[in-house]
User: What shape does this take?
Amino acid sequence: MARVDARQKESRTGRRYLLRTIVPDDAQTLLDHTKDFEATALEFSVTLPEERQNSLEKRRAWVQEHLDEPDWLALGAFDGGTPEIALGAVCFATHKLKRLRHMGTIGISVHSMCRDEGIGAALMQGVIDWARAHPTIECVGLNVFVSNARAVHLYRKLGFVDQYVQKAFIKMGPGEYQDDIRMALWVKDVPPAGG
Ligand SMILES: CC(C)(COP(=O)(O)OP(=O)(O)OC[C@H]1O[C@@H](n2cnc3c(N)ncnc32)[C@H](O)[C@@H]1OP(=O)(O)O)[C@@H](O)C(=O)NCCC(=O)NCCS
Assistant: This one.
């Protein structure tokens, strides 16, 4: 069971929210959150709206999988006054192959009405703290478009370092490409170089 203790938080502008593990009953709230992400941040997304599994049932199953897998996690920031609004959500999943299970990948989004208020940093820190205390997770990784300056700034501020850049990894349209950065934060001892 991947869970964290719920915590009351306040954003940089005084917005109150609850940082807690996402549960299956949050499925509709998450679908609404995804709509905002698609309307405001599609230029930073690999997944297109028509490729996303947008049914309530599938979203519930996605949440349940994050609860059931001991090294996966999904956290949400829920509005203090209107808890059916997700101000942000972050997920972390490891690979299913045993030799890759010591590291995982983060996905994150914050609602367009409250970006740059520190909510993304709080969500990321929630995953990092959980991963540090986890018995087997050693590295938290993520992929980010080079053009996503806000996200790159946030990840570097939290201690993530660039691992490599994949040139033209994303094809946005005919003749239009985006480079992608793989970043990582070691939450246990950093393995020796070349090891
Ligand atoms: C990226 C995202 C998750 C960050 O969450 P957030 O709540 O906005 O982040 P925070 O407020 O904690 O931090 C944002 C930081 O970026 C800075 N920033 C904002 N615009 C910036 C820019 N164009 N260039 C550099 N830094 C920028 C802010 O000043 C802040 O830094 P500071 O705390 O040092 O002042 C959120 O903005 C988001 O959902 N964006 C759209 C979806 C997305 O890009 N998801 C990530 C895909 S990898």
Remarks:
- The chain has four helices and eight strands.
- The domain at 7-142 is CATH 3.40.630.30 (Aminopeptidase).
